[in-house]
Every structure is written in C-alpha cells, then in structure tokens.
Amino acid sequence: MVLIITGPMDSGKTTRFLALYGSKRQGDGFASLKDMAGKRVTGFRVMRLSTDRTRMLCVHHERDGNMPDDGFRFGPYVFDNQTFAMVHDQVSDMIRQGVMTVWLDEIGRLELEGHGFDKTMKMATDAGVDLVITVRDTHVDDVIGRYGLKDVTIITV
After folding, report:
1. How far apart are CA 62 and CA 42, in angstroms?
2. Contact 107, 100 (CB under 8 A)
3. Which has more pLDDT, 127 or 61?
4. How large is the angle between the packed helices 118-127 and 140-147, nearest 10 degrees?
5. Of 50, 64, 106, 108, most Cβ neighbours within 10 A?
6. What secondary structure does DSSP assign to the chain, as a single string?
7. Residue 24's pLDDT is what?
8. What integer best gives the mean pLDDT of the chain?
9. How far is CA 111 from CA 11, 26, 74, 100, 101, in A?
C-alpha cells in the first residue's frame, strides 16, 4: 500500500502528513520542516517522526553560516549529503526491525533526478513496506513510474 499526499507547493502537504501520522502512530519516518525568516524559507530540517529529533537538510544558498560541508546545490538550496545518508541508514534500520509503514516527506524533482531520498525510496519499495509520502502534484505520475508504485491511494490537499 502506498499513500501519496499531494497538492501544489505550499498547499499543506506536510501539515496533512504530520496530522495523519499523529492520528495513526503506525510506522516511522521523516518529515521535512521549513526554516523561516519572516515569510522567506531559509532552509529545511528533517524530523524523525517517532522522536521529534531534527537535523539540517538544506539551507538557502544566500543564508549566512551553517552551510553543509558535504553538500550539493540544487535550485536555490545547498543540501547535506550526510543528512540523506543518515535518513537512509535509519530507514534501513526501521525496515530490519520490522517497521511496516515508512513515512517520507517529500519526494520530488530531487529524487526524480537520482538525488535526495531516491536511494531510500528504492530500498523501501524493494522491501515491500507500506509507504506514506508527500509529492507535489506536478510530480505524482513521474514518482509512481520511477518507483513502480502499486496499490496507490492519493489524497489531494
């Protein structure tokens, strides 16, 4: 089973994702949370759902300080490869420990180009676990195709 929460940018996908996890408390995974300065997004952190612990995922290239040492630029952001590796390792541990539902926010253009959570998505789909993911509305068909997702339910926000 794959549940995709979708909608346009800034439509509330992550809010719906977190509310759904809060009501179900089944499985584990990661949410991507915006860091804001006023109305400007300055970066994103990933938060482990079961612990609420966060780690920097990316920063806007214009942000002073806190730039990842091991990173790559994609659009206006510099992403931290070590954070993606940490998420991958922790999801791998979840699967080994028998977690049946993996939650990942957000799968999109970065993954479609082979970066970000791409390796983690492939591992989770190969393992046959249930997935709850967020995907921008313009990428849903491409994400379904790239990962060969079956038994998909879509919630639009």
Report:
1. 8
2. no
3. 127
4. 60
5. 106
6. -EEEEEESTTSSHHHHHHHHHHHH--SEEEEEEEEEETTEEEEEEEEETTT--EEEEEEETTS-S---SSEEEETTEEEEHHHHHHHHHHHHHHHHTT--EEEEE--SHHHHTT-TTHHHHHHHHHHT-EEEEEEEGGGHHHHHHHHT--SEEEEE-
7. 87
8. 94
9. 20, 25, 11, 22, 20
Question: In angstroms, rounded to a whole number, what is the distance separating the alpha carbons of residues 42 and 138?
Answer: 23
**Residue 143 confidence (pLDDT) above 80:** yes
Of 52, 54, 6, 49, which is closest to residue 27 (Cα–Cα)? 49
What span, in angstroms and rounded, lies between the C-alpha atoms of 11 and 85? 28
Half-sphere exposure of 138 (CA within 13 A, CB side): 4
Q: Residue 127 is which amino acid? A: A
Read off the pLDDT of residues 63-74 as tens digits, 9 standing for 90 and up. 655 666 678 888
What is the pTM (predicted TM-score) of this model?
A: 0.93
